[in-house]
Amino acid sequence: MTTSAGESGPRGGVGAVAFGDLVRRVGTAARAAGLAVPAFRSPPRVPGAARSIRRLPGGTVVSVRIGARSEEAVAVDLVDGVIAANRLEEHAAARMRAALLRAVDDAEQFGATVGVSPGSSDRDDPCVSRVA
């Protein structure tokens, strides 16, 4: 997983654009696997924490620190947040962790293969027709 130029945070960590893209990829893969997708935010309210989870009546919130951290570390925290939010048992958690991380990495590789940056949208695609 790589961060494109201009997407890094103030201290070389994952920036907001890259974080949003990671959240989208993890959420898409989790939803496809039939899991509930928590809300994601940054940073955690707990000082010094890399990741925290809050269970609220309306759903779960996973908070992840992104500053001065690699995209891989942030992706692992997002995936682990999905696993915790869904309260997966040991074996199911291990299988799902591997599948979600693979899906996140595959999504990035697909974008690189077809020349689409991970954060781009169909607005940038000349093949997508728009109705005026």
Describe the protein's architecture and organization.
This protein has 132 residues and is of the alpha+beta class. The protein has one domain. The protein contains 3 helices and 3 strands. A 3-stranded mixed β-sheet has the order 1-3-2, with helices on one face. A hairpin with a 2-residue loop joins strand 2 and strand 3. Helix 1 runs parallel beside helix 2. The chain is globular, with a radius of gyration of 15 Å. Mean pLDDT is 80; it is low at 2-10 and 111-132.
Radius of gyration: 15 Å
- The tally of strands reads 3
The biggest sheet amounts to:
3 strands, mixed
Q: Segments where pLDDT lies below 50 for 5+ residues?
A: 2-10, 111-132
Structural shape: globular
What are the key terms here?
alpha+beta; 3 helices; 3 strands; 42% helix
Walk me through the topology.
Elements: H1 16-32, E1 39-41, E2 51-56, E3 59-64, H2 71-85, H3 90-113
Parallel strand pairs: 1-3
Antiparallel strand pairs: 2-3
Helix pairs in contact: 1-2, 1-3, 2-3
Provide a concise account of the structure shown.
This protein is α+β, with helices and mostly antiparallel strands. It has one domain (16-124).
